[in-house]
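Lab notebook, design round three. We kept the backbone fixed and only want residue identities now. Task for the bench partner: fill in a sequence for the structure below.
Input structure tokens:
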């Protein structure tokens, strides 16, 4: 049965005290919106519509960056959740199957929970996701008898008796797409806020003889982000979940509370992650690799048996093959390191290709930027790059070649050649004591003049 998704992402989020649209604030190095999209896309939907509003252009761009197939529609006036869903309905005209309504500021709904809602659709025309709240606060209350949902009451409109109920509304709804469109079109705004509440579809459905049901999830899944404090709580919740999943999947975390994952981090079984490691977006660590302490990785791939760090940085485009070693204070950017390459320390490799089993000496720099354009450095197999070598790109060092320490290499080096590009050393016997005496006399004179 096909599935459609509507994700509501129009809110300004005034309590965030920010010019940035609320759904673009980040948890785990990804916008909140991407978390909601990831959960919904687990259902393999045929259609995805993101409803934008505040910062519509930026939100639409972020949505398409995650899934280019999604459609966006703008809610020009913020007249409530029912009104927001109504904006999406024309884009779903003629779609068969069920439709989910999710929220761009609610990042932790699990795919398993959405599957449970789909299963409940076999018994009910409308299914609402609820949770038992420790502190119900201003959440809408679910008036239910067992699984059967009678109605949803917004806090503003609830009686004292209804406010005592702890079964609360998450806002997530599933219904047949055509039925949802029909119910949404019947929503009115005769309430304390004068808004069109999506939650009213439950009462409308029951009046038409349609059943409504509730699926209950853990309260942690329904965490919404409306303030900076809640954003910090969401980050902590994500990291706790990600660390637990990594450990369960056979990853060693020597100090789990100090490791920070991104939304799309992939770490293979038997990998070892040391303390204070931060993963940015787009990182894959294969099984058996080791990331030592205080490393920062973004947009890179680390293969089986490779070691990184401590104190290393891998930037976008870094590709480390099997058994590569990247040591302390090394930065790799847009570079491919073939099997067995060793880059021990204090090195920058940017826009480079390094052949298998090549050794890169300390202090090596690929000088890849001329102030306007980037250029590539190519180093062959089993080459030896001496310490403090400056490789001025574009330049090629052949297989088995060697550069002398302190060289500035501006021309291609043939295979198995040795290249030296440094000034000739001049030695003056016996001059050192004379220079020291001269320096001391000059210093003494300065001190006397200043007295």
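Proposed sequence:
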């Amino acid at each position: 049965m096909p599935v459609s998704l509507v994700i509501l992402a129009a809110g300004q989020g005034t309590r965030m005290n920010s010019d940035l649209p609320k759904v673009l604030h980040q948890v785990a190095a990804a916008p909140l919106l991407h978390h909601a999209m990831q959960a919904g896309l687990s259902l393999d939907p045929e259609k995805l519509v993101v409803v934008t509003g505040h910062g519509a252009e930026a939100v639409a761009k972020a949505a398409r960056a995650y899934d280019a197939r999604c459609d966006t529609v703008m809610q020009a006036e913020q007249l409530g959740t029912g009104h927001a869903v109504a904006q999406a309905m024309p884009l779903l005209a003629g779609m068969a199957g069920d439709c989910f309504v999710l929220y761009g500021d609610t990042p932790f709904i699990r795919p398993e929970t959405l599957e449970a809602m789909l299963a409940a659709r076999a018994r009910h025309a409308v299914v609402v996701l609820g949770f038992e709240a420790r502190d119900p606060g201003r959440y809408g209350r679910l008036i239910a008898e067992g699984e059967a949902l009678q109605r949803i009451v917004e806090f503003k409109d609830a009686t004292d008796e209804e406010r005592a109920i702890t079964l609360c509304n998450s806002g997530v709804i599933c219904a047949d797409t055509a039925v949802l469109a029909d119910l949404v079109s019947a929503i009115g705004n005769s309430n304390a806020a004068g808004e069109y509440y999506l939650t009213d579809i439950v009462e409308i459905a029951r009046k038409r003889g349609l059943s409504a049901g509730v699926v209950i999830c853990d309260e942690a899944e329904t965490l919404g982000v409306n303030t900076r404090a809640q954003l910090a709580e969401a980050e902590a919740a994500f990291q706790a979940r990600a660390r637990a999943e990594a450990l369960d999947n056979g990853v060693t975390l020597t100090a789990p509370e100090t490791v920070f994952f991104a939304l799309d981090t992939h770490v293979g079984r038997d990998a070892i992650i040391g303390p204070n490691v931060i993963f940015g977006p787009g990182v894959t660590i294969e099984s058996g690799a080791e990331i030592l302490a205080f490393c920062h990785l973004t947009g890179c791939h680390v293969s089986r048996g490779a070691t990184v760090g401590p104190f290393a940085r891998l930037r976008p485009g870094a590709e480390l093959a099997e058994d590569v070693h990247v040591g302390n204070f090394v930065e790799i950017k847009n570079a491919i390191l073939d099997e067995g390459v060793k880059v021990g320390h204090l090195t920058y490799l940017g826009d480079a290709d390094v052949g298998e089993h090549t050794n890169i000496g300390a202090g090596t720099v690929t000088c890849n930027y001329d102030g306007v354009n980037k250029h590539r450095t190519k180093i062959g197999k089993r080459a030896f790059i001496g310490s403090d070598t400056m490789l001025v790109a574009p330049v090629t060092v052949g297989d088995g070649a060697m550069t002398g320490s302190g060289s500035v290499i501006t021309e291609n080096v043939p295979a198995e050649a040795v290249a030296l590009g440094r000034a000739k050393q001049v030695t003056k016997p016996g001059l050192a004591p004379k220079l020291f005496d001269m320096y001391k006399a000059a210093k003494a004179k300065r001190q006397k003049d200043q007295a």
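Keep this in mind before ordering anything: Residues 156 and 276 are 45 Å apart (CA to CA).
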